[in-house]
Amino acid sequence: DWDVWQATLKRYAPAQSPLSSDFIRRVALKVGRFQGFGVTLRGLDGQLTRADAAWQLHLDSDLLSGQIRLPDAPGATLVANLTRLQLPASQPVDPAAPPAADALAEVDPRQIPALDLTIAQVLQGDSVVGAMALKARPSAAGVSFSELSIDLKGLLVTGGLTWEGPPGATRSRYSGRLKGADLAAVLSAWQYAPSATSKSFRVDVEGNWPGSPLNFNMRHLTGRVDIRLSNGQFLEVKGGSAATLRIFGLLNLNSLARRLRLDFTDLTDKGLAYDKVEGVLQGTDGQFTTAVPLTLKGPSTIVVDGQVNMRQQMIDTRIRVTLPVASNLPLAALIIGAPAVGGAWFVADKLLGGKMSSLTSVEYRAVGPLDNPTVSFVKPF
Hints:
8 helices, elongated
């Protein structure tokens, strides 16, 4: 235990005695079990070398390797430069399974020391996760993490985070940005269906949740989520959830296209293309409303407005789809392709004084489970 090791050093080699600077210069360590800084390591080898007013700890094990500078001064900042940290291999994700227990539930954030941390390579099993850097500073209530730069399989997390409270009753707060390039690659890396592609994406979060930073979950998030995606497609992935497509009305767009005998294959053959997607969710304890409607702009414009209950995995939204129908669409084409629809369109156009061709939007309502809502037609515009 690092606390025991520090006490031993102080007992036999006080910081102000000649022993710490002249007598003890290097200690070879072979540790069967090391516990400190909220982690437990087994089979740890290292060397403790005396430096100016500090000890330099060189570590090497199957799980981690690198150096930690341990200053003599009480409360001084530890500096950890690790070349590698290997975490246990990930297990397959079961979407129906309840969220995993908080791995840091028993850790007291008030006991975390001041620390500047960089890890050049983080692995999960044999798979490379990325790299990370942060600064931790203790407070009376817990600890704050600043200058976050965490690369998680293509998802870059930046900003600041606080973790406060006693063990078992802590709360985390995050203010920052999650961003990346191709969303499909990130989803695949995290074992989710690659149901959306992008040239770039970002999600700005101002929120808090119960438990440690590792206990983040949209089911219990309170705060604001600002979503931005650019240049990509929403795809229907075989064996994956079609929730995204259903929310954006593509399945119903296909149905409507068939009814009108119009050709939207440029939209539907390879997915629903978009130039950008923007929207803001605001909520409490996993129950969100669209503070700014989620809007997809591309060959068609789709606007989603309503409620998303992440706790119960339910939605209740209205979806307005603006179809890519030209203002000079020949009515004869409709009449030939679908006489009943074309005839009704022709009569309505005459009654409205030739303005029917500008009514190119339809509205749907999506209600039910997030992964398979019931989407019903509401009205045309």
